[in-house]
Write a structure and sequence with these properties.
Elements (H helix, E strand, L loop, with lengths): L4 H29 L6 H12 L4 H22 L1
C-alpha cells in the first residue's frame, strides 16, 4: 500500500510555491504603480534582505545612491 504522505507534501509544496508567486506578482505590481523601477529580481533581493532584518529605508537609500553612479561617471568623462 502506498502512503499519501508524499502526495500531500507535494501538493502542499506546490500550493506554497503558488502563494509565493502570487505574492511576488502583487508586490511587483505595487512596485510598478509606485514607479520604483525595480525588476522582479531586484525586488526579490530587497524582500529577502528585509526578511533578514535589513532596514528597508536604508535599502531604499542605497538603491537611490547606486542609481546616481552612472550619471556621476558620465559627468566625469566629459
Amino acid at each position: 500500500m502506498v502512503s499519501g504522505r508524499g502526495t500531500r507534501a507535494s501538493v502542499s509544496a506546490a500550493a506554497n510555491l503558488n502563494a509565493v508567486r502570487e505574492t511576488m506578482d502583487v508586490l511587483l505590481e505595487i512596485s510598478r504603480i509606485l514607479n520604483t523601477g525595480l525588476d522582479m529580481e531586484t525586488l526579490s533581493i530587497c524582500l529577502r534582505l528585509c526578511e533578514q532584518g535589513y532596514n528597508p529605508e536604508a535599502l531604499s537609500s542605497g538603491i537611490k545612491e547606486l542609481r546616481k553612479v552612472p550619471e556621476a561617471l558620465k559627468a566625469l568623462k566629459m
